[in-house]
Amino acid sequence: MRRQSETSTIISGLHHAAMARAGRAAAAFGALAAWAPAWAVGDMPGGPRVNQLNLGPGVTRIAADQAWIHNFLLLVCLIIFVLVFGVMFYSIWKHRKSVGHKPADFHESTAVEIAWTVVPFLIVVGLAIPATRMVIEQKDTSQADLTIKATGYQWKWGYEYLKGEGEGVSMLSGLSTPLAQIEGKEAKSETYLMEVDNPLVVPVDQKIRMVVTANDVIHAWMVPAFGVKQDAIPGFVRDTWFRAEKVGTYRGQCAELCGKNHAFMPIVVEVKSREDYSKWAAEKKKEMLAKADDPAKEWAVADLIARGEKVYASNCVACHQATGKGVPGAFPALEGSKVVLGPQEEQIKTLLSGVVKDGKPTAMASFKQLSDVELAAVATFLRNAWGNKAEDSVVQPRDITAARK
Amino acid sequence: MSAVLDHHGHDDHAHDHPHGWRRWVYATNHKDIGTLYLWFSFVMLLSGGVLALTIRAELFQPGLQFVQPEFFNQLTTMHGLIMVFGAIMPAFVGFANWQIPMMVGAADMAFARMNNFSFWLLPPAALLLAGSFLVPGGATAAGWTLYAPLSVQMGVGMDMAIFAVHILGASSIMGSINIITTILNMRAPGMTLMKMPLFVWTWLITAYLLIAVMPVLAGAITMVLTDRHFGTSFFNAAGGGDPVMYQHIFWFFGHPEVYIMILPAFGIVSEIIPTFSRKTLFGYSSMVYATASIAILSFIVWAHHMFTTGMPVTGQIFFMYATMLIAVPTGVKIFNWVATMWRGSMTFETPMLFAIGFIFVFTMGGFTGIILSVAPLDIQLHDTYYVVAHFHYVLVAGSLFALFAGTYYWIPKWTGHMYDEKLGKWHFWMSLITFNITFFPMHFLGLAGMPRRYADYPMQFADFNALASVGGFGFGLSQLIFLWAVLKCIRGGKPATAQVWEHAQGLEWTVPSPAPFHTFETPPVVK
């Protein structure tokens, strides 16, 4: 997306012409070959323009409002600037000792002093009114069509589609600029440092609520074309929103110092038409499904054990303990347990149905909500963990599938 | 009074204070301690400047050329810490030491030995900061704001920075106690509060700000320290803490801190403008009230540094309104200075040039301040180069220019010689021009969305960055003219009269130049 205000088109046009001449001259000097000035590239699509002077118009109403209020403030400041410094430089010119000006002896005037307290106050009130309206609009994240969670990591972004079309899609998004460009061994591209492997994809003209958090330190999720910047705070969830009005690719960068690679975790958002977005979401879901656990396939023992250890850590460890020794009198040990070491059918039944003693359910509840892969993995893990050496040491997901029937 | 001065003329104090290195290590004289402060801060200014120039060298073009990103972050962090705590703040304390006793007609500062201690705390703190570059992991790279949890991740350099800031804070608090006591208890008979020179007023208010907020900073960084080493979770959500709480505490210190660095500058400018306009300061009492209003407002605006943390609507609106209000008393000050110049009989020696330069460029920083105060717009500009431009306009062209103005204004009184006017003018014009070449393009970079504290940047930002780097080196080199001018003035020059400037008003101009070692042992009487 290339958007240029008239003035800056003219300015950058002049600039390009001048710089093109300079560029030909510079090319003659081999020593300057490493020099990489801005005129060597064009405007970045959806990112900064070459030598951009002002806020861009953006593609959301919020960004347009920000650009408007900024120009309005510039105008107000310019008027004050001209008035105050007009008086000051007039005085410097006329009231000099060298032109023989004799000093007056006034040193206060209550009326004037009240006037220049009240007038600025009124100007400030005048500025506060539109600003207040904009704050309220910016903070209204209700009635979103799509909710996406952005998580800042050192140093990349993670996206999860929480609600709306595409729900369940998730991805990590990291810098795709090659190191050789950063180190100056290759020419830098137009999108240098503002390109990623997996861009965030959203539909056009839909209200997107971004839920922003972080995993380690504070980051900030910023896309200037949307007028959005939200700190990503570890352990807390904050939200912001945008409604992009134009299809295209828009770029931003992390805006809160987050350590060594702070400058190398950009944000790229692809805004697609509604149809294209639906297509993308469906495809993405299919892709993710394909990558998901396949209960029909034959799993390697090492994979099952590794996976099972994780399942154990999140489901079983609270009672049976990390040592597998349980808590004597309350939760049985799994190390050397007869159920674990005995026939697979009994172990699978315990996992799927829980343990019932004297007609009453015990603390060992059913874990049938876990997937076949997860249950097979944890069963396999247990049959091989600690000192356990069971006869049939591998439970495959299809065994669980069979037992469920 | 001249009898008093004659009695304590130039030669008879040879035996009443130590000489050689002892004169400085055991210093209890406010003038000697002032000199120590000023030299210390100048050394820190050059050190922080070298860091800044390394940053500008790296940013001269896109890509990584000279430093790696982790070291780059150390540079930006230490540049900030050294300039704020090592250069600007001690420089103003140096001015306070030299000038306040002379301006209120006191013989010395109230607590002479504490004064010595508050200076001699500074060099160990500076060594801790400088030494932290040499430890494993290097200096802290968490930004001068030391935001948690990033600051919790740092190596031992962070602990050294925390201790350094603790020491600097203790020094500031002692200095403030000294200044407040001196001003409130040791004024010459007849000098009521509303007859005090404005520089004294601004420092009185600044000293109260320092006492109020330095302990808050100490608290914040101590919490970081215990989070780092003693298992607390003040800023760790997993342990029930909140990273944003650090920002609240830090900026409750941080915003008054920026006024700590600018109010004495207002004071210096308010002394200089009337002298060279050959008029009385316009609206003295409204200047005092405006200063006090700014100080009070500074306590209720801190969260405007945090608009993007995602605070509630009411929070944003409150902090936006409060921040905008600061424009009113600040405007009053600018108008008063212009009204002082109006229909005066102006001459433009170097102090006046720097004072006018201050008004002109500081006001531009004030305008960008208003723009940043508008919360919905700050969302775009927060943490971009726009903010970098803004605070360098108020801190370099504001505080630093005022410090230069004050130095040229009072150095004849300190050394007994006039400085070289030609060098002073070169210094001014070079500084003004190169300053703007360095920092004006940063507004454009920020508006175009270039985040601050970036070791590398997209190609589209290259030209303005190259320009800023060229300006930065020019500005750095211009300060060598200042060093030259000061050294030349110390070594000799046209002898200065007691009055020095035609229309200079105030008690400091009633003592000879150079000011004798002891002044006002018998207090003067102010009518």
Short description, anyone?
The complex is a heterodimer of chains A (405) and B (527). Chain A is 40% helix and 15% strand. Chain A is of the alpha+beta class and 405 residues long.
Average pLDDT over all residues of chain A: 87
Helix content of chain A: 25-40%
> Total helix count of chain B?
19
Gap between N and C termini of chain A? 55 Å
| Shape estimate of chain A | elongated
Unreliable stretches covering 5 or more consecutive residues of chain B? 1-14
| E-strand count of chain A | 12
Number of helices in the DSSP assignment of chain A: 11
Major sheet of chain B: none
Written description of the protein model:
The complex is a heterodimer of chains A (405) and B (527). Chain A contains eleven helices and twelve strands. Chain A is of the alpha+beta class and 405 residues long. In chain A, strands 3-2-1-5-8 form a five-stranded mixed β-sheet, with no helix packed on it. A three-stranded mixed β-sheet of chain A has the order 4-10-9. The relative contact order of chain A is 0.09. The N terminus of chain A is likely disordered. The interface between A and B is large, with 108 and 96 residues.
What's the structural blueprint in terms of helices and strands?
The complex is a heterodimer of chains A (405) and B (527).
Chain A: H1 6-27, H2 61-94, H3 110-138, E1 146-153, E2 156-163, E3 170-173, H4 179-182, E4 200-203, E5 208-214, E6 219-223, E7 228-232, E8 238-242, E9 248-252, E10 267-272, H5 274-291, H6 301-315, H7 317-320, H8 338-341, H9 344-353, E11 356-357, E12 360-361, H10 372-384, H11 397-404
Parallel strand pairs in A: 1-5, 4-10
Antiparallel strand pairs in A: 1-2, 2-3, 5-8, 6-7, 9-10, 11-12
Chain B: H1 2-7, H2 21-25, H3 30-58, H4 69-104, H5 112-120, H6 122-131, H7 150-153, H8 156-185, H9 198-229, H10 243-260, H11 263-277, H12 284-297, H13 313-325, H14 327-341, H15 350-373, H16 375-381, H17 385-415, H18 421-447, H19 462-491
Helix pairs in contact in B: 3-4, 3-5, 3-19, 4-8, 4-17, 5-8, 6-8, 8-9, 9-10, 9-11, 9-12, 11-14, 11-15, 11-17, 12-14, 14-15, 15-17, 15-18, 17-18, 17-19, 18-19
